[in-house]
Specification:
With 443 residues, the chain is α+β, with helices and mostly antiparallel strands. It folds into two domains: 3-20 and 235-434, Enolpyruvate transferase domain (UDP-n-acetylglucosamine1-carboxyvinyl-transferase, Chain), CATH 3.65.10.10; 23-232, UDP-n-acetylglucosamine1-carboxyvinyl-transferase, Chain, CATH 3.65.10. 29% of the residues lie in helices and 25% in strands. The chain has helices spanning 23-32, 49-59, 88-91, 100-108, 127-135, 166-176, 192-204, 237-249, 265-274, 312-319, 340-345, 375-387, 398-401, 407-412, and strands spanning 3-8, 14-18, 39-43, 64-68, 73-77, 85-86, 110-114, 139-143, 146-150, 158-160, 182-186, 207-209, 215-219, 230-232, 253-257, 277-282, 285-289, 299-300, 325-329, 349-353, 356-360, 369-371, 391-395, 417-422, 433-434. It has a five-stranded mixed beta sheet with strand order 22-23-1-24-25. Helix 1 (23-32) packs parallel to helix 7 (192-204), helix 8 runs parallel beside helix 10 (312-319) and helix 8 packs parallel to helix 12. The model is unreliable at 118-123 and 427-443 (pLDDT under 50).
Length: 443
C-alpha cells in the first residue's frame, strides 16, 4: 500500500530539533564490528531502513545482533562468522553494505559479496575497492554479479586513490586492519564519517592514524589484539543541514541540537551568504534564522571539506525563491539533479545542462504532486513543499525513510503541517497519521 506525504506550505518553521546519529557513519561501524570477536554495542543508532538492511546483511554471515530501538543501540556479537556471502537481494538495496567485503576478507580470508545497489544518483564504480584489495594481496574474481575475494595473507602497501572515494577508503581501511605491516592510503577521503570509523577501530585495538587528512596509515594488528567495545556514533551532518535549510527557506528560526558545527563549515558559509543567521549557542547547538528573501549564490559540490553533494538538492530547493540567479555545479554524481523536474512542477525556474543547473529565483512556489527519486531529492521536495503556497503531495517515501529518522515528527515540532497517509485510503481518518507536535507519534 503506497504511502504519501501531504504538506500544507507557507508556515515559517520555529522551534527546535535534535539530530540523530549519522547514517553514513553507523552503517560502516556495524560492518567494522565484525572484525572483533565478542559483542560490540553501538549507541546513537537512528531507526532507518538502511540500518535494518545492514543488520540483515551481517546476520546473514552468522553474526548475532540485537536492535533496541528505544535505547537507540545495536549489539553485534561477531564471535562466530559462519557464512562469507553477502547476498544480492540485500546488497543491491543499499550500496553501503558492500563495505563488509574488506572486513570479511581480512578476518575470514575469503568473501563473496554482491555488487552494490542504492540510490540511482549516478555511476559509483567499485574499481578502487577492487584494485586496492588486489594491491593488498587479495585475489579477486567477479562472476555472476558477485565479487569473490580470497587472501590467505594480506600485506600492507601504498595505495593511491585516483579520486578520494569514501567507500573505497573505508573498505581498504577495514581490509588493512589485520594485514601484515603498514598500509598507506593516499588521496584518502577526509569526511567526518571516516574519522569516526578510525576512532571506532582504534578503540577496538586497531592502529589507524591520519584519518581526516588525505593520507591514512594503518598498521596491521593481530586478531587477538581486537576486542569488542561500546561506542556512540557522531551526529548526522546531512540531517542537520537539511533542517537548517528548511528553517532558512521558510524564513523561520530554530535550534538545531546534537550537531557538530565544524562538520558543516563550508555549508554554513553558503547559508550565511544566502542571508541566514547562524549562531553557536552551545558546543553542539546552533541557532538558525532568516527574516528576508534569500540572496542567490553559486555552489560547486566537492569532496569534504567542500560543499557536500548530499546537501546539493536541499540547497537547490532553498534557492528556488532567492533573489537573482544561482548556478549549481554537481561535480561528483552525474544523475544528482533528479529533483529538477519535480521542482519545476512546483513553479521553480531551473535550466539544467549536463552537470550545471541555473536556478532563477521566482516569487513563490506552488503546491503540486511530486515523487521522490532518491533520498536527498526527497528531502529537497519536502523543503520545497514547506515553502510552497498551497498543498503538496510527495510519494515514494521509501527513499526518504532510508536516511531520515522521524522526519515527519521533527518537522511537525518545528510547526510544519505534515501528514503521512496511505494512498488507497482516500486519506480517511483511520489511515492518516498526524504528527503535529508529538515526538512520540508513530510514523
Amino acid at each position: 500500500m503506497a504511502e504519501k506525504l501531504k504538506i500544507k506550505g507557507g508556515n515559517s518553521l520555529h522551534g527546535e530539533v535534535t539530530v540523530s546519529g549519522a547514517k553514513n557513519a553507523v552503517l560502516k561501524l556495524m560492518a567494522a564490528a565484525i572484525l572483533a570477536k565478542g559483542e560490540t554495542v553501538i549507541h546513537n543508532v537512528p531507526e532507518l531502513t538502511d540500518v535494518n538492511i545492514m543488520l540483515r546483511v551481517i546476520e546473514g554471515l552468522g553474526v548475532k545482533t540485537k536492535h533496541d530501538k528505544s535505547l537507540k543501540t545495536v549489539s553485534i556479537d561477531a564471535t562466530d562468522i559462519t557464512d562469507i556471502t553477502a547476498k544480492y537481494e540485500l546488497v543491491s538495496k543499499m550500496r553501503a553494505s558492500f563495505i563488509v567485503l574488506g572486513a570479511l576478507v581480512t578476518r575470514c580470508k575469503e568473501a563473496v559479496v554482491a555488487l552494490p545497489g542504492g540510490c540511482a544518483i549516478g555511476e559509483r564504480r567499485v574499481d578502487f575497492h577492487i584494485k586496492g584489495l588486489e594491491a593488498l594481496g587479495a585475489e579477486i574474481k567477479i562472476e555472476n554479479g558477485y565479487v569473490h575475494a580470497k587472501a590467505e595473507k594480506l600485506t600492507g602497501t601504498d595505495i593511491y586513490l585516483d579520486i578520494p572515494s569514501v567507500g573505497a577508503t573505508e573498505n581498504l581501511m577495514l581490509a588493512a586492519i589485520l594485514a601484515e605491516g603498514s598500509t598507506r592510503i593516499q588521496n584518502a577521503a577526509q569526511e567526518p564519517e571516516i574519522v569516526d570509523l578510525a576512532n571506532f577501530l582504534n578503540a577496538m585495538g586497531a592502529d589507524v592514524s591520519g584519518a581526516g587528512t588525505s593520507e591514512i596509515v594503518i598498521t596491521g594488528v593481530k586478531q587477538e589484539n581486537l576486542h569488542p567495545i561500546e561506542y556512540a556514533t557522531i551526529p548526522d551532518r546531512i540531517e542537520a543541514g537539511t533542517y537548517m535549510a528548511a528553517i532558512v527557506a521558510t524564513k523561520g528560526k530554530g535550534l538545531i541540537r546534537n550537531v557538530l558545527p565544524s562538520h558543516l563549515t563550508f555549508y554554513n558559509s553558503k547559508l550565511i551568504k544566502m542571508g541566514a543567521n547562524i549562531k553557536l549557542v552551545e558546543p553542539t547547538t546552533i541557532e538558525v534564522s532568516c527574516n528576508q528573501r534569500l540572496n542567490s549564490v553559486n555552489i560547486v559540490t566537492q569532496p569534504y571539506p567542500g560543499f557536500p553533494t548530499d546537501l546539493q538538492a536541499v540547497a537547490m530547493a532553498t534557492l528556488t525563491t532567492a533573489e537573482g540567479v544561482s548556478i549549481i555545479t554537481e561535480s561528483l554524481y552525474e544523475n544528482r539533479f533528479m529533483q529538477v523536474p519535480e521542482l519545476r512542477r512546483m513553479g521553480a525556474d531551473i535550466h539544467q545542462e549536463r552537470n550545471h543547473a541555473l536556478v532563477r529565483g521566482v516569487p513563490k512556489l506552488t503546491g503540486a504532486s511530486v515523487k521522490a527519486s532518491d533520498l536527498r531529492a526527497g528531502a529537497s521536495l519536502i523543503i520545497a513543499a514547506l515553502m510552497a503556497e498551497g498543498e503538496s503531495e510527495i510519494e515514494a517515501l521509501h527513499h526518504i525513510d532510508r536516511g531520515y529518522e522521524l522526519f515527519e515528527t521533527k518537522f511537525a515540532n518545528l510547526g510544519a503541517d505534515i501528514v503521512r497517509y496511505n494512498d488507497e485510503s482516500e486519506k480517511s481518518d483511520s489511515n492518516i497519521i498526524e504528527v503535529k507536535g508529538n515526538l512520540n507519534a508513530s510514523i
